């Protein structure tokens, strides 16, 4: 499995970036993770960790930026994702140093592919078709770019440009040997504590953020079928994490959750110089973490990640995974 994207799928790359403000290498992050705070934006495992377990991968996928990620370490895959990054190169600039999706793809092409060739020899060219290429990006292009007012275009035009850019990035990966793609939807970020604290609403979610996410997700789902003729032999799966999380938020109790609106950890407020997203270093943290939807101001708890990964892997509902699930994709 090769992984590209932002904080929802980052498993520690930003730890190794100087001057990055999007770092979670401290408690309470990782409070429920076997290795402690590892740079995952959650209390425990993220979606990628859980998918990897369901696919029976022998180890966690190592982060590209970790100096020890080389040699035999890379034969089951590498994670390139970077918290705060986006599909567009200028997304996340206010988070300091982040790795854009274009740069992540360059890291795969220029560093990992030659090294994979050394490890696997002749087999390396054909073996890429057996890897899953997971791409989870786009949310920050709205929250850390478009909605900061840097763009004087309509949200429709911005979304169309974003989809075209991503489509070209997927074709680049295809050109490098990728054949199996898992595309993650943008989450309902308008329902996150970060959004609702800034813009209190009567029904609990900030509609402008959710409308943009739904627009992008509709384009992304269409892309799954539209791009295939241009990428012969490829298969793409769209994982609708938006719907999966939205269903939990609408009916939390029936799904085993009790708190769908607050951060589990103490978040550094904007008035304290924070962004309203990340946990306060050494701050308080809720005891019943498996009952919370959000761990910090934006990122889900491990409990929610388990639901998303499980549905991605084995759901038969086309509204959740389209056109089929990741288990089927892995067996093709």
Task: Annotate the secondary structure layout.
Elements: E1 2-5, H1 47-54, H2 101-120, H3 123-127, E2 132-136, H4 139-143, H5 155-175, E3 180-184, H6 193-198, H7 207-226, E4 235-239, H8 241-250, E5 259-263, E6 292-294, H9 302-314, E7 321-322, H10 326-331
Parallel strand pairs: 1-2, 2-3, 3-4, 5-6
Antiparallel strand pairs: 4-7
Q: Low-confidence runs (pLDDT<50, min 5 residues)?
A: none
The residue-averaged pLDDT reads 95
- The dominant shape is globular
Largest sheet, if any? 5 strands, mixed
Query: What is the count of helical runs?
Result: 10
Alpha-beta classification: alpha/beta
Helix-strand pattern: EHHHEHHEHHEHEEHEH
- Annotation, overall tally of beta strands: 7
Q: What is the C-alpha radius of gyration, as a whole number of Å?
A: 19 Å
Percent helix range? 25-40%
Subcellular location: Secreted
InterPro entries: GDSL (IPR001087), GDSL_esterase/lipase (IPR051238), SGNH_hydro_sf (IPR036514), SGNH_plant_lipase-like (IPR035669)
Protein name: GDSL esterase/lipase
Pfam family, one: Lipase_GDSL
